[in-house]
Amino acid sequence: MKEITRINHIGIRVSDLETSREFYEKIGFEFIVGPVGPEPVAVMEHPSGININFILNANQADLENVLMDTPVKHTGYTHMALEITDIDSVKSQLESKNIPITGGPITLPDGATFIFVRDPDSNVIEFHKAA
């Protein structure tokens, strides 16, 4: 459909709002509102316009990501990729905030480079520097 213009938001089910909020603030997101609604939901937004809705109804904290960490490969979204301008700067900032890099850096033949981290609920975030 040509009417689609961009992704409006990403929904992530989390086990604890304060823990998730603290993590995403470390990578530049700002708290907007929440919890609100019947689920309930809290909203954070990055100055670049990327919006995350935290769905606050997880049954429990689970360090295993069923989409990424189990031998059975389930369908579903496996990660979000945030485009960045400087991989070395992002690596340095992550390290200074005690956010471990869980994968990479990986460089593709075209020169694109990326690294991965996990949020407190083991959701995967890719920081992607295009070629």
TrEMBL record:
Keywords noted in UniProt: Lyase
CDD domains: VOC (cd06587)
UniProt entry tagged with the keyword Lyase: yes
Superkingdom assignment: Bacteria
Pfam family name, one: Glyoxalase
Record GO terms (molecular function): lyase activity
Domain (VOC): residue spans on this chain: 6-130
SUPFAM superfamilies membership: Glyoxalase/Bleomycin resistance protein/Dihydroxybiphenyl dioxygenase
Signal peptide: none
PANTHER family, per the entry: GLYOXALASE_BLEOMYCIN RESISTANCE PROTEIN_DIOXYGENASE, LYASE, PUTATIVE-RELATED-RELATED
Name by which UniProt lists this protein: Lactoylglutathione lyase
UniProt organism field: Sinobacterium caligoides
Source organism phylogeny: Bacteria, Pseudomonadati, Pseudomonadota, Gammaproteobacteria, Cellvibrionales
